Amino acid sequence: MTATTVRPSARDARADGALAGLGTLLKMWLRRDRVMMPAWIYGLTALVSSTVYSFKNGYDAPGSLESFARGINDNPSMRAMYGPVLNEHTAAGVSAWRVGATGAALTAVMCVLLVVRHTRAEEETGRLELVGAAAVGRRAPLTAALAAAVTAAATLAAVVAVVMMVFGLPIAGSVVFGLSWFGAGLVFAGVAAVTAQLAETSRLANGLAFAVLGAAYLVRGVADAGSAHWAAWLSPIGWAQLVRPHAGDRWAVLLLPLAAFLLLVAAAYALAERRDLGAGILAPAPGPARAAPSLRGPLALSWRLQRATLAGWSAAFLVYGLAIGGVVDGVDDLVNGSDAVLDDIRKIGGQQDLADAFLATAMGLMALFASAYAVQSVLRMRAEESAGRLEPVLATAVGRVRWAAANLAVTVAGTVVLLGATGLAIGVVHGARSGDLGGQLPRQLGAALVQLPAVWVIAAVTVLLFGLVPRATSAGWGVLTVCLLLGQVGPLLKLPQAVMDVSPFTHTPKLPGGGFDVLPVAALTAVAVAAAAAGLLAFRRRDIA
């Protein structure tokens, strides 16, 4: 970036000093987000569309929706994951239940990433200091970042509301539903604005904001699963449900996220006035002059850099596994009255036994999430290179392949931990509830770990991109997206098997319940090893940065 790229116009320069250049910065932030923002909006809109379509067409038998909703409301694990069904008589009410809390949380994630990207990350890389050298007010960058996040959340809310109306859902409930997501985005845009002032790195700023989001989701889950329903009023994610879209439409509750946003933004501006550019309110403690013996190597360094991220992913996988283990015994009640949903689960799970098909589907979904962790972990290598931190490391006795292999080893070990935690959690809970702990624990653990070769293929393809076309490393997300669509939608659309076979997850054994064949597992592992080796060799020969 150069100073001329962001030099504000004469009109901006004449604006109030604190907000001078706001318009130019906002245009630049929106231009930078021209791919990221539509991707989020498209993905969340697709989630709503598929959910509404599923409930309108999958539960068309009389009483089927009510039976489904009663099964949810009688299951504490499902209430903890998604909340209670507040309107069990209409597809609109059940659809709002299914994606309400999840979509609100994902909207919050989008807004956190946008605000931190345009504030703390810009300071961390030094670009904001260059921008500030022009006629840009001190409050303009934070204001522009908040405006970008609010724009994204508002656009998402509008598109989601329109999509619901297109499906024939009531107009008022659709608007309230969109605004419930918008409110969650507002709150966590404000949270991110505060954490961006507290932390000195974008990683810590995101981590603090996501910790608040996780606590909010946990509080909501505990409130919905137990008898302390009042606790949901303490959670911004709970507010999104308490608006009751398509189940009463409480417009007044929307004032809560608006008030929280205004308070958080005021706090963020106050904190911004108390710190220097590039510094954070929470100053990092100085480290020791010499590294501990445990840090004297690329493997130890990679582990140190990724351990916090892995801990967060592991906690999420563990919670998901506990929840899935708790609902397996009631899966028959959840699909009672809907032959279409029953058929869909069996198609994706690849088995006739409903419980095993449900678990196989859950294992496949968690394998996709583990692949997301793997792609993120591999992309860290590209981030280290782009930020200029790799060259000092390679200036020592550490070679390129050794450094990259160390990072890849942490990625591989991390995927084992994630899927292992899922399998253990499902096995313990399902085994305890069914009275067969000794049988279910190894059965579910094996079903989870058998997904690893497919996950490693996605990681290896990302490594290959890193080695051959470093600027296209992020295309690993595109590869994962294609596999997601093929695995979750392909069986329902009856795509040709040749198309389905493009995804490595198509070749993994459908466990538990299905037969185990060592040949596809070995073949996927061999493909992963070959792709990773080719990527490391290409990285060894190309220029750095």
Automatic annotation (TrEMBL):
Q: Where are the transmembrane segments?
A: 35-55, 96-116, 144-169, 175-196, 208-231, 251-272, 310-328, 357-375, 408-429, 449-468, 475-493, 518-539
Query: Do the record's keywords include Transmembrane?
Result: yes
Which UniProt key words apply to this protein? Membrane, Transmembrane, Transmembrane helix
Q: What is this protein called?
A: Exporter of polyketide antibiotics
Q: Which organism is it from?
A: Actinomadura napierensis
